[in-house]
C-alpha cells in the first residue's frame, strides 16, 4: 500500500451562486464558524482523517470549471435547519486559483485524487493570479475550456 501521507487526498464540490474565485474570497470573509471559514455539506467524509493528515484541499467548481481550491484545516458538525446533523468542512481563508478545468455537475462532494487535480496558477506579488485568462469573462473561459483551449 502506498504511503498515504505523501499523496494528498482532496475533495471537490460545486459552488452555487458564486461566479468567480474573487467572489468566493468575499464569501470566505462572511461565512464563519468560530472565526473559521467553512463549506457546509450533509455528510462527514469517511476519510476525513486522511484528508487532514495529507493536507488535502477542497477544489471548487464554479460555472462548470474547477477554478480554485482552499486548504482543508478541519471538520466539525452542526445542526441543520431540519434538525439533522450536518458537516462543516473548515477551510483556510486562502482561495488559491487553479488552472481552469471543465467539470460536469454532480451533487454533494467527491474525493479528488492529487493526480487528478489541476495545478495552481502563478500569483503576482499582490496575490492576484497572473495567467492572462482570469480577466476574461466567465462565458468566454467556459467556451475556451469546452474547446480544450484552456
TrEMBL record:
Instruction: Identify the domain of life.
Output: Bacteria
Q: What is this protein called?
A: DUF1489 domain-containing protein
Amino acid at each position: 500500500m502506498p504511503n498515504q501521507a505523501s499523496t494528498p487526498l482532496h475533495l471537490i464540490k460545486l459552488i452555487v451562486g458564486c461566479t468567480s474565485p474573487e467572489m468566493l474570497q468575499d464569501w470566505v470573509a462572511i461565512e464563519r464558524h468560530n472565526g473559521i471559514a467553512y463549506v457546509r455539506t450533509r455528510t462527514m467524509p469517511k476519510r476525513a482523517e486522511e484528508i487532514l493528515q495529507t493536507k488535502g484541499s477542497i477544489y471548487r467548481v464554479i460555472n462548470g470549471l474547477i477554478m480554485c481550491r482552499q486548504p482543508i484545516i478541519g471538520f466539525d458538525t452542526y445542526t441543520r435547519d431540519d434538525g439533522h446533523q450536518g458537516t462543516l468542512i473548515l477551510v483556510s481563508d486562502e482561495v488559491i486559483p487553479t488552472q481552469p478545468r471543465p467539470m460536469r455537475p454532480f451533487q454533494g462532494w467527491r474525493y479528488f485524487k492529487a493526480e487528478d487535480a489541476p495545478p495552481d496558477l502563478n500569483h503576482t506579488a499582490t496575490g492576484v493570479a497572473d495567467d492572462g485568462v482570469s480577466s476574461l469573462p466567465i462565458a468566454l473561459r467556459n467556451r475556451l475550456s469546452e474547446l480544450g483551449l484552456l
